[in-house]
Amino acid sequence: MRETRATLEKAGVQVVDVQLFDGTEGMWEMITRIFSADGGNAFREEIAKSGEPISEEIELANPQDAMNVRQLLDHGKKILKNLATYT
Length: 87
Known about the structure:
Order of helices and strands: HHHH
Strand content: under 5%
Mean pLDDT: 84
Distance between the termini: 22 Å
Helix content: 40-55%
């Protein structure tokens, strides 16, 4: 990368550093928090309709972690702020 940069700069090309988004900076946790904003209750209700047990591999949100509207909006703002640093 350094060699390429040096060659380009020597040729008069302006090289600009960019910060690439790799999707690992806490985004998974932020997004799954929104999908389980109700504490996983909707998921539990749908699975209960099938009569099947919930697979052990599935991590369910704690019902006590349900968010109110203000918390959900604030959480969405955090995600947008995080994404904005990569645009």
